[in-house]
Records
---
Amino acid sequence: MANHFDAPLAQMPGELARALTPHLSAPFHGHLSAQAVAELEQASGLQGHDLLLALLPLAASFAQAPVSHFEVGAIARGRSGDLYFGANLELAGEALFHSVHAEQSAISHAWLAGETGLTEIVVNASPCGHCRQFMNELQSADDLVIVLPGQDNGALHHYLPYAFGPKDLGVEVGLMAASGQDLQLDSADPLVLAALEQARQSYAPYSHSPSAVALACRDGQVFVGRYAENAAFNPSLPPMQMALAAMSRHGVGFDQISRAVLVQSSQAQISQASAAQAALAAISTTALEVVSAA
Ligand SMILES: [Zn+2]
């Protein structure tokens, strides 16, 4: 694993690179605890946003950008103080709407880890309009600080004035903070149950169509993704993309997928099946199993 991180470490101050090295052999999937952050601040002399900015090359090293060759790294700080890294993911040969943006990767990383809100997000390039809209879905959007290299830190609403968001559609509890929904299905299949558990926690306040994906790999690892809907619809992050972004952060090749399960509600207004199948077909010969929950 060390080789993968040599290039980003070379872009950091020496004290920080030395202090980080023990964390990178764990292996490292882009999560640093608040305690580790405090230790890195002490060892490097870099505090707060300065530390996050210095860590960005490490986040960008998770990028898979076969179309743009433009590597974006993002780091979200959860309310717990932990850091969650994310990077952009593009699927070679597939339509661009299958892409995951670095901010979406970092935010979904924090959400999957159990965070209920974010205090700040650091990105190595100015967030695109799609990501500004995606971040506006967060329950913590009003307090979210955007940190960019060479810019004054600004609130999300500075970057997205006159925003259209959840409250305009009558949704009061936003992304990451919404409680789950009651979904049931009869199965003893661990992968189906893993997807069911995630579907219960998915966020679909507009379509009322909860869903999630679980991907099993040949080495036994399982990666999951929950649907994260958006008031502007198109920036919604589909469950397959969230799961693939998690695999990408773990450095697991998509050729390692041995099974793929989508669980969605039988009463859903919209289906994720064709979109998930198309994304999966771009990177794997594994067939998608679609399971309905009541
Ligand atoms: Zn973006």
Note: The longest strand covers residues 257-265.
---
Amino acid sequence: MYPSFQVKPMQYINQEFNYTILESLAKKFKEQGFVKLINVFDNDFIKYIENKIEASINAPIDRYQTGFNRIAFDLFVADKIVDSLMQNSKFRNIMFRITKKELFYTQGLGFELEKNKSTGFPWHIGTQSFGYQQASDFGCTIWMPLDEINTKKQRGGMAYIPENIISGKFMYEDIDPSIVRYIKERYQNNDNPQLEDYLQLRDGILNNPYMKVLLDHFAVEDDFAIGDILLFNKNVIHRSIKLEEGALQRRRAFAMRFIENHSTYDQERALNLEFPRQLFNYPGCSTFHLDVCGQDGEIIAKSRYFSNHDNRHLFISK
Ligand SMILES: O=C(O)CCC(=O)C(=O)O
Ligand SMILES: [Fe+2]
């Protein structure tokens, strides 16, 4: 007889979130645009992600990413483990009950901050990650730190603004498009716009001294144990928090982006992401927004870009 040896299947989700808990999380998510969930992912899943991130993230290439020690966009394409998380009924239930949306997984990203050095991203919204869907379409992120975050010790997490106080919606709807339009019009008028003009506007609107007074005042910063996550919608203004002195050398995080399943492609918005990169001739961090669809108005989740739509669709049978 051979000893009966079986590999334990990955559970992904560590605990039951009952109806009452999910409804109270949903209420918070609706009000604030974000919610912290405790003890969601199991150790096997976290270890898997950690190993893969370690092997995939690299030194930054784009100026906008230099706040990180290592970073990667477009991770986990056709990854069996991540695909089966999207198929997991407990996971689907959590995502649907809290967001009240049927979601489609688009992208995975990895981030690493180095102690006392990396500043990460300043106040921002998901201009790049959600820059190919209509401004009004729903999108959200699961942010999953891979190192413990203690706000009273080393910090190194994120800060975020409740959407019922200040929402970042105006950035998608008005500011991002008008910044590109301003640069374009100056270019057309032979007014010689400079990369610096663009960068100051792109990063400056949410980080100018007066806006910072408000954002810093209303910022929420949480502790995270390994397995805890932050779920936040695309309108939540957020920033990285520096990892301060202490035992941890670096803080890593994995982010998963989702869009509402019926979101459509906004080609002008996607091309707007490219315009400054072409004009000022610097590399972008991702071409996902160009590759994902070819036609304006196309349903993104049905695009030929995704080889297996069912693996990414958090389908809910009602
Ligand atoms: O991990 C970080 O510091 C930044 C993460 C972030 O901005 C995001 O996931 O949108
Ligand atoms: Fe972000």
Note: The longest helix spans residues 169-188.
---
Amino acid sequence: MIRIGYIVGSLSSTSINRQVAQGLTSIAPEGVELVELDYSTLPQYSADHDADYPQAALAWKQSIEAVDGVIILTPEYLRSIPGSLKNALDWASRPWGTNSFDGKPVAIAGASVGSIGTAAAQQHLRSILAHLNAPTLGQPEVFLKFSPEDFGPDGAIVGDALRGILDGFLKAAHAHIAQHPGAATAA
Ligand SMILES: Cc1cc2nc3c(=O)[nH]c(=O)nc-3n(C[C@H](O)[C@H](O)[C@H](O)COP(=O)(O)O)c2cc1C
């Protein structure tokens, strides 16, 4: 069994990236468990916290360390990732010397209402993950232009093209994470 943590890079209650995450969960094959890594209660990061990390941040770091790999589904805000997601990654990287992403295999995807489908945001995210020393899946790149008709009322994927894209992405993410065993720490 491989445990993959997914991060939805949006705090919106109507997030389209959350819909994509739910779509991925619905097609996860036998032997792959997808669990959400929730960062919604984190305060704003400041180095002032390093000497006495808040409980929410310790729990966030532990949740990353407890999974075999991570999928990040990011929206694009102003041609980059949302500040809330960057804040969560900042918390995970500190205190200095305790980077929770160190060696953790990651795969990224994203959905936007815009036609470039988060391509600019994902390039920024790749740069951040390189600095975090998180080996990041190169292909397939998944830049989704969101179409509501791809999802049924219960959130299931009804669009065959989208299903094929997400299925290929999940298979590649699974293989990428399986190639980096030992990145997980004890739950
Ligand atoms: C502050 C802000 C900035 C945005 N900037 C971009 C952008 O640069 N490129 C883009 O394609 N969409 C942009 N959008 C539109 C988002 O693609 C859209 O809000 C999308 O639904 C966000 O994903 P979410 O529903 O998962 O939060 C922006 C939206 C907001 C609120």
Note: The mean pLDDT is 96.
